[in-house]
Amino acid sequence: MATEERLLSVRGLSKAFQLRGRVSRRLVALDDVSLDVRTHEIVGVVGESGSGKSTLAKCLVRLVEPDAGTVEFHARDVLSLRGRELARARRQMQMVYQDPYSSLNPLMSVGAAIAEPARVHGLVRRGAEGEHVREALDVVGLNAALAARRPRELSGGQRQRVAIARAMAVRPELLLADEAVSALDVSIQAQILNLFASLRDEHGVAIVFIAHNLSVVAHIADRVNVMYLGAIVETGPTKEVFAAPGHPYTAALLDAQPGRHRRRTADRPVLRGEIPSPLNIPTGCRFRTRCPLAQDVCAEQAPPVVDLGGGRTARCHFASRHIEQSLSSR
What we know:
By secondary structure, the protein is an alpha/beta fold. It has helices at residues 53-60, 83-92, 110-120, 130-139, 156-168, 186-203, 214-220, 238-243, 248-255, 296-300, 319-328; strands spanning 6-19, 25-38, 42-46, 68-73, 76-77, 93-96, 174-178, 206-211, 223-228, 231-237, 305-309, 312-315. It has a domain at 81-91 and 99-172: 3-Layer(aba) Sandwich (Rossmann fold).
């Protein structure tokens, strides 16, 4: 990847929370996470609840301060920024949350909610917000007449479009969509996914799309990062990863999706049990306690990041073997 093509570069990002009580405990939310986002690209981040996806998004914009690692946006170290420089970086990296109702102030009109961040960042003067709001609503396919309404008067899909319009009103280069369609009906999900795709295609916005639903990510993402217990265990072009996963966790997630059918094989991984607590991450491979293919080495040694070629990696002792098995079971 050429340096000039890289919009966001994350290396070795780690975050742990100290839980206080009778005994102080350490909850590991992120462990040595690295990923890249190119300009005009949609990058998926998938995994079960508790895998660290939302913490990752919050660390990227410093709503949560990471303990270690680097976050570079346009080759600038975001973690070292202060004051106006940090505010500018946050303007360029906007969050879109899961629940559009709780993320919008119920006492503010749609127009006021969209205009406020644009005014705070100096993009529009007080009293001159009307045209700016109309343009933002038009970008997300909403009628300008909705500007006078309150969030409670809108449907869930309309509220999410308003939340996206608010983010787009400050002219970001990167959207961080954290489970942005999971609270919506399936028919509305498709519309919002198409909206995100159009924002990339027509407005040049890159997107980090966080979801637990792999079929949603398969529909929209150019590349995917699979997270488990705070670590990225597989990454690569979405079509290739989902067609022939190199990590048993990815394969098990795919097989758990409704409508997913592959020829049964004795060594096909089946996702079993619950994700372990981030207070007590297993030694060696963190997935080994749920993996039917685990061997002694999986408990003894943390797996390396295996380069599978073509921009693909997997954190597994037997990654190449898993790809061959995935292809043979199709």
